[in-house]
């Protein structure tokens, strides 16, 4: 979902969160871990549930879950530095910060990786594969081809670049043409306006694709305002309530969802194993991939019901 240029946790990830663990704690029976997110969205509420589950499954660990109050990279960095001082601790764009922390703590990225940093490993989505999955959904939504537009917060964010790559690879050689990628700098008002402008300038547009979580509701609401529900196909990412309702109503063809619960659970569990010199069985490339899933009208009710439980609703 996600703003991509922020730490996730010394425990979990960079763009959305990062997971930190004191190396000093590794010598004792009890481990102090920290999970640092980049904002307060429900996406991280689910990841927190996964961290809580890991605390039940793994003995003698404590996970401190940190959420930046204003959702900025500056605030996330401040919390990160505070955690390092205490002895605990954006991926590609925050490599220097991660490297500084890695000298003092075990750092794991999640949701958006920083492969060139000194992070220990990554837990999260293969965003190129997720982009390919979205590409297949687009092909299914517009079997006769046509023009499409992609929408995202920041095109240079690692997960955005990889999702775009996956979509482009899948649509290559088809009669589906990507007109452009419109960005909004995570401004929801601008996100909706981008869609509205697209609908006016490209009245024959076949499909609109949202690559970050809030893009789904922005696209849906703009299409509703233009009275084009059913006339323009929509494919999105993530599981905001408006997005799932749109899938349920048939206004959105499908959405590609991640599994933040497993991000939290697996990141905490694997960190504890690594700190205790147990074999965490990390793949050679340092990436623990949690598969994505396509949600459409056939499975949205079951998925949404389970999601509400994880959110505590």
Q: What is the helix tally?
A: 10
- Uncertain residue segments: 1-17, 23-28
Report the biggest beta sheet as strand number plus sense, adding barrel if it closes.
Answer: 6 strands, mixed
CA-atom Rg in angstroms: 20 Å
Order of helices and strands: EEEHEHHEEHEHEHEHEHEHEEH
| DSSP strand count | 13
Major sheet strand order: 8-7-9-10-11-13
Tell me the helix content: 40-55%
Average of the residue pLDDT scores: 85
Quaternary structure classification: single chain
Share of β-strand residues:
15-25%
By secondary-structure content and strand pairing, the structural class works out as alpha/beta
Give a quick summary of the entry.
This protein is an alpha/beta fold.
Which SSEs are present, and which pair or pack?
Layout (H helix, E strand, L loop, with lengths): L8 E2 L6 E6 L8 E7 L4 H16 L3 E6 L6 H14 L8 H8 L2 E6 L10 E4 L2 H15 L4 E7 L5 H14 L4 E8 L4 H14 L5 E4 L4 H11 L7 E5 L3 H9 L4 E4 L2 H16 L11 E3 L3 E3 L4 H12 L2
Parallel strand pairs: 1-2, 3-4, 5-6, 6-12, 7-8, 7-9, 9-10, 10-11
Antiparallel strand pairs: 2-5, 11-13
Helix pairs in contact: 1-9, 4-5, 6-7
């Amino acid at each position: 979902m996600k703003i991509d240029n922020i730490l996730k946790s010394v425990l979990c990830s960079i763009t959305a969160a990062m997971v930190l663990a004191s190396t000093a704690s590794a010598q004792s029976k009890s481990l102090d871990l920290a999970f640092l997110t980049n904002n307060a969205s429900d996406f991280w509420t689910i990841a927190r549930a996964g961290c809580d589950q890991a605390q039940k499954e793994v003995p003698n660990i404590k996970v401190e879950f940190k959420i930046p109050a204003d959702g900025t990279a500056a605030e996330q960095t401040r919390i990160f530095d505070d955690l390092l001082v205490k002895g605990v601790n954006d991926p590609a764009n925050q490599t220097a910060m991660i490297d500084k922390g890695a000298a003092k703590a075990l750092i794991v990225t999640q949701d958006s990786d920083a492969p060139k940093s000194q992070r220990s490993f990554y837990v999260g989505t293969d965003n190129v594969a997720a982009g390919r999955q979205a590409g297949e959904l687009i092909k299914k939504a517009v079997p006769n081809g046509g023009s499409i537009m992609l929408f995202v917060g920041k095109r240079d964010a690692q997960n955005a670049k990889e999702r775009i790559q996956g979509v482009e690879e899948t649509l290559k050689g088809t009669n589906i043409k990507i007109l452009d990628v419109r960005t909004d700098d995570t401004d929801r008002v601008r996100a909706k306006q981008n869609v509205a402008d697209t609908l006016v300038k490209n009245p024959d547009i076949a499909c609109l694709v949202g690559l970050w979580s809030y893009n789904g509701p922005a696209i849906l609401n703009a299409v509703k305002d233009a009275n084009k529900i059913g006339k323009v196909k929509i494919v999105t990412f993530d599981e905001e309530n408006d997005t799932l309702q749109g899938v349920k109503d048939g206004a959105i063809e499908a959405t590609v969802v991640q599994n933040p619960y497993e991000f939290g659970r697996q990141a905490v569990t694997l960190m504890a194993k690594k700190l205790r010199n147990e074999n965490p069985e990390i793949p050679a490339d340092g990436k623990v991939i949690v598969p994505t899933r396509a949600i459409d009208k056939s499975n949205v009710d079951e998925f949404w019901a389970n999601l509400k439980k994880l959110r505590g609703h």
